[in-house]
Amino acid sequence: xxxxxxxxxxxxxxxxxxxxxxxxxxxxxxxxxxxxxxxxxxxxxxxxxxxxxxxxxxxxxxxxxxxxxxxxxxxxxxxxxxxxxxxxxxxxxxxxxxxxxxxxxxxxxxxxxxxxxxxxxxxxxxxxxxxxxxxxxxxxxxxxxxxxxxxxxxxxxxxxxxxxxxxxxxxxxxxxxxxxxxxxxxxxxxxxxxxxxxxxxxxxxxxxxxxxxxxxxxxxxxxxxxxxxxxxxxxxxxxxxxxxxxxxxxxxxxxxxxxxxxxxxxxxxxxxxxxxxxxxxxxxxxxxxxxxxxxxxxxxxxxxxxxxxxxxxxxxxxxxxxxxxxxxxxxxxxxxxxxxxxxxxxxxxxxxxxxxxxxxxxxxxxxxxxxxxxxx
Length: 376
Ligand code: UDP
What we know:
The chain has helices spanning 11-26, 42-51, 68-86, 98-109, 129-140, 149-157, 171-185, 188-191, 207-210, 213-226, 238-246, 267-276, 285-294, 309-312, 323-335, 351-365, 369-375, and strands spanning 4-8, 31-35, 59-60, 90-94, 114-119, 143-146, 165-167, 200-203, 232-235, 259-262, 279-282, 298-300, 316-318. The protein is of the alpha/beta class and 376 residues long. The chain has 2 domains: 4-170 and 347-375, Glycogen Phosphorylase B (Rossmann fold), CATH 3.40.50.2000; 188-334, Glycogen Phosphorylase B (Rossmann fold), CATH 3.40.50.2000. α5 (129-140) links the parallel β5 (114-119) and β6 (143-146). α1 packs across α16, α4 (98-109) packs parallel to α5 and α7 crosses α12. The longest helix is centred in the first third of the chain and has 19 residues, at 68-86. The protein is globular. The chain starts with a strand and ends with a helix. Bound molecules: uridine-5'-diphosphate.
């Protein structure tokens, strides 16, 4: 019987889980990886397994892209059968994607303890599908691992027992720390002809930014405008590419030679480019955190963030999506020097270790003492 079953499904999950799987390997806790197939292609999935040295998934549920409800339901059905077969001691879920909620719901109903990594983040906007996933998953979990103190406070305010909440730091940052040198070695900016030049890096894929064509068009024209100030590298998420094609907005992508549209990048190339960028514009959760640690100015094109620590302790500004405001904020950020700042507490590259240590203790505390002694 494996001790941990780690669920992964989408791009940010691979980055977060890599640290936990590695820490489990070092602690000799047996660990099974279940990939739901929420993201299933080479660009959003395979490259992360290769670059982050994640072992191949033990089980692949192969669910694929669907509407939120269909995807969640299909993951639940497939995961129920898998869980029954594997019978782990603890189910570990990360982040806030549909796989996170679907698997925690099945595990809780089947009375398996759930450990939620990145618990307690709240943007207080239920129109964001990820916020629904976060809230529900937290209330189904037995162990809640938080990346920041504000997340701990959110959980306490929602009535979750403090004894189940553990402030451990950020596993996405563990992976950043671990692979930062390897990302530099790829010299991605130089390979793109951007060595020593100022450029902006952009990611967009949140529903609020790409599903409504009026919003999407306004954002794309803003990027074209921005490219008159400096080159803009835009790795296009498949979801955003589909929306652009569907709304016939492709002309914006070729409107300026300095708007460089590329496919989604592998982790090392993306982190390398992010580290050398003068400015990042994004609606990604993880990118807000990574730019904070890299000390690169970040403009978040959303109305809210569930990661306020990146604003109070980092380089992030949450500026919405009004074109004038975005361009004004970009010019302002480019004109400022990033002052040295202390990193958010416990974002030190060791969160995965702390999580595994806690789960190890919980596992062995649950065993009768003679068994624990022989196993330990
Ligand atoms: N990322 C990447 N290639 C890209 C864009 C992002 O490797 O082209 C990485 C990024 O460094 C971070 C993660 O993907 O580690 C963030 O994933 P995403 O923005 O899809 O999800 P979110 O964090 O918003 O949930």
